[in-house]
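Table 4 source record.
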Amino acid sequence: MKVRFHRLIWILLLLGVVSCSKNFTSEIIYIKITEIPTELSPKTVQHMIKKVLLNLTTQPLHSQNCSLLDELYYEDGFLYLVLKKGIRFHNGYPLTTEHLLYYLAKIEIDNYEIINDFKIKIKHKENNKNKIDRLFAERIRFYPESDTDRVQNYFVGTGEFYLNNYSDTQFKLKTFNSHPVFSKSINRTLIISQENHIDADVIIPFEKIDKVTCQNILRSKI
């Protein structure tokens, strides 16, 4: 028991500095979801877990802590969005303005013009603010229209992790080494499981599952 305790303390200390460590080269983190209410249907549980996977495999178009935009400005009644160059999806394809069309249609913005692969302008109207906020919050995926049952396609994003393989009760994610923020010398594997026998490094109570992000998993702060 003492050995296990010291091992856990060592892991927690390591996770606290892993984002700035250049010597650390590999890590497997076992994450167990516990305290799942018995009254919830399996479909509801799976839906919640998929939200976690979206947080780990995708990024919002624009937020305070994370943005896929290089520039954002207003000019002559238009909002200009300029995508960062070099951003790639997990399947290797570059992020371009074409990938925003689904989300523009989803929130019913139709007065826009694609200037080039990385720049788009949207007519700015006073009643557009809520729509623009919704656009910024959208987590960008390569296959946005995928059926949610096609799991492998559904989670192809630009996030820190990509979905490597999965089963009904376990998901395996790996570091996306083409991510612009992550060092290619750091390789991490996250194994998220509902299986009780897993000896977990991080335990997530089901009631806190919607708070899971890459940062608080790696710092063990759920």
